[in-house]
Input
Amino acid sequence: MVAARRYDLSAVIELAQQALSLVPPEEASPRSRILLSLGVAYDEMGGDIAAAKRAFHEAFELGKANPSGSVVGNAPLPLTALAYLSEIEWRQGNLRSSYSMYNQALELAKRWGGQSSIALCLVQWGRASLLYEWNDLDEAESALLESIRIGELWRNAYLLVPAYGLSAMVMQGRGRVDDARALISRAEQITLDSYSPLPTLGSLAIDQIGLWIAQNDFQAIKQWEQHHDSEWQAQIGRGRDPLAIVLAHARIARYYQQHDDSALSQARALIQTALEKAQASGLMFNVVRLLTLDALALYAQGATVSALTALKRALAIAEPEDYVRSFLDLGKPMEEFLLWSLESQSLSEPQLRVYVSKLLSRFSADSSIDSSQTAGDTLSELLTDRELEVLQLISQGLSNDEISKRLYLALDTVKGHNRKIFTKLDVHKRTEAVARARELGLV
Output
């Protein structure tokens, strides 16, 4: 406990390994608790993702046999282990598999209890992160509201800062800039009030800087770097690389706004170091984001062949998992680069061309949102991308259960999409929805 409170993760690893050697194999409950601590230490250190995954998996399997035998944060221990496993799966780039695991955790929470547990807070934040990446902002907001509800019960900065930060990004994505600023201010205040701000520094800055980029506030980014440069450069663990990603993004955005050529070389220096580490660790979610940034920087420098090579690598990883916001959040420069890749015929692979065309349609839909409109006004006129997917499957005659399995969504989520689709199309049942959609050319 003392080592954990000091954030001395190497000591936690050493002590956990010693404890495992002393606890008999048949003592499942204490072993699963030790393995959970060991997995967290490996994961937070960022040095051995495979070891973290093994520890979490073993903790889950040991605890699953007797979920009531050990409790962490008001939740059965295996539920907490599954939440961590799901996040690693997502960071390894397996977005669909991760979402399925998060939904499994929701079902286990109902079965075992823990609807107001730390584990479920992590699960809802993780689901929201994936939904945000898929640009399903409505569902992301719903999951975040639940994550925040639980986090506020525990008054835990480690839980609340990322939930409020991501909520701010969701609001920014919907054009609700004032709401975004209010939410990030809440995250900032929680960090200031925390007695242990180190673990939350990186989490806050990722979304904080993301908002400043979206709002072209480069002065705020410069001030942040002046105050925190030594801190983030010295930071260990998994928080460092996402910070490098957003700072590289900030430099590229600054180039496009201010035409500062030095910003591109600074961005690429950050990207190359982080990319080597992400590839070595197998963290493909970061690899995609870094490759897209590198491609954009190379394109701006006129190195179109190298830019296209990096873009193709990113697209090949992203396409099967349907990444969206990793491209969309790069704004107009990425939209123009993707359009060039199509129009110049430089992107010849049919599957990647279809994917890029789909991404470009998302840019068009995103830019059509007027920030002066309320979310209700906009959503009354448009179906979200996820709702269009559900509607398409409804038109093919699939049941809610079949749609749930096809899209890796919880059954309740599919039913919620149905209700929203019916409301927006002003219909009351499936056959009417399909007929109306065909009238509008939606299916």
About this structure: Strands lie at 71-72, 75-76. The radius of gyration is 22 Å. The domain at 238-366 is CATH 1.25.40 (Serine Threonine Protein Phosphatase 5, Tetratricopeptide repeat). Residues 1-5, 370-381 have pLDDT under 50 and may be disordered.
